[in-house]
Design goal:
It is a single chain. The protein is 19% helix and 25% strand. It is of the alpha+beta class. It has one domain: Endonuclease/exonuclease/phosphatase (Deoxyribonuclease I, Chain A, 4-Layer Sandwich). The chain has a six-stranded mixed β-sheet with strand order 3-4-2-1-14-13, with no helix packed on it. Strands 5-6-7-8-12-9 form a six-stranded mixed β-sheet, covered by helices on one side. Strands 10-11 form a two-stranded antiparallel ribbon. The longest helix is centred in the middle third of the chain and has 20 residues. The protein is globular and about 75 Å long.
């Protein structure tokens, strides 16, 4: 048996773990069973599971509720299936930590999101994300920007919540990635903190020993009031983890985000096109543009 002993929950803080599984298998199951009792919320990426096979995540621990998003359903229903499995994100939450957990609909298969509620505390939105790989192409950049936009839509729809996003962002904080500016703007616009990583032991999370490729591409991003100054993401080195990613962990002190303490971020009004009266907008634009008197010289 790989399951570790159950421990008494310390309600003063929440402990998060994030892991790119590189395919959920028996080895992944054994590793997660050995560490999951040390955490309250676990975020998974690249499970490579379909809706029909995602039930295997229930075997990790009976005391955790599982929320999973498959990235393979379109391919599985489109006819002939070729190539290896891909994508898939999940969130596992320890039972009885929150009064209520509501799954959220994200307009991309690259993320799984939930809203956690407890009396006397501000709601917490948690999201597991698996961002597109940076192949330096325009298509990849557009897909990255689109995915960030889907995440932003969740933020806009929950203005009074705290947020924590964790997973494989497929970029480093070193200025060499075209998508990095998009993530930094996302953090700045929403007053989020891109949590620094403690690199006193190693400075990478992804490792490909055959190609001698190492990079720090797994991160946590969260509301600034969720952590204290100096708090850092930890890289979890463990021989039981057979993935090509090391897991990362972060502790959040609950008293910093309770409803009665801490300073709330100022409300920001954001307009949403998906809720706009587009026909009225078109009509108004047409009417206003028709009143413009352009000089004929400007037409040549």
């Amino acid at each position: 048996m790989c399951i570790g002993k159950f421990y008494t929950l310390n309600m003063a803080q929440l402990k998060f773990l994030s892991l790119n599984c590189h395919g959920f298998n028996k080895a992944t199951l054994c590793y997660l069973q050995s560490v999951i009792t040390d955490y309250d919320i676990v975020l998974l990426q690249e499970t490579w599971l379909s809706n029909q096979t995602s039930h295997v995540l229930d075997n990790i621990h009976p005391g955790f509720n599982v929320y999973h998003t498959s990235a393979m359903e379109h391919k599985l229903t489109s006819g002939l299936v070729t190539g290896r499995p891909f994508g898939g994100t999940a969130i596992l939450v320890r039972e009885n930590v929150f009064k209520q957990i509501t799954p959220l609909t994200v307009n991309t298969v690259r993320a799984t999101a939930i809203c956690c509620s407890s009396p006397g505390q501000r709601n917490l939105v948690v999201m597991s994300v698996y961002m597109p790989w940076d192949d330096r192409s325009l298509y990849q950049h557009d897909e990255y920007v689109f995915t960030v936009g889907c995440i932003q839509a969740i933020v806009d729809a929950h203005p009074d919540c705290n947020f924590l996003f964790g997973g494989d962002w497929n970029l480093c904080k070193n200025g060499r990635y075209s998508a990095e500016l998009c993530v930094r703007r996302f953090c700045t616009d929403n007053q989020f903190c891109w949590v620094d990583t403690c690199t006193d032991r190693i400075d990478y999370t992804y490792h490909n020993d055959n190609n001698d490729h190492y990079s720090l591409i797994d991160h946590f991003i969260c509301s600034a009031n969720l952590i204290h100054e100096g708090d850092k993401t930890r890289i979890m080195i463990d021989g039981l983890n057979t993935s090509d990613h090391f897991a990362i962990s972060l502790k959040v002190n609950q008293h910093t985000w309770s409803g009665g303490s801490g300073k709330s971020a100022p409300s920001v009004i954001k307009l949403r096109w998906d809720r706009a009266n587009v026909q009225l907008y078109q009509s108004e634009c047409t009417q206003l543009l028709s009143t413009l008197n352009l000089p004929t010289d400007a037409l040549y």
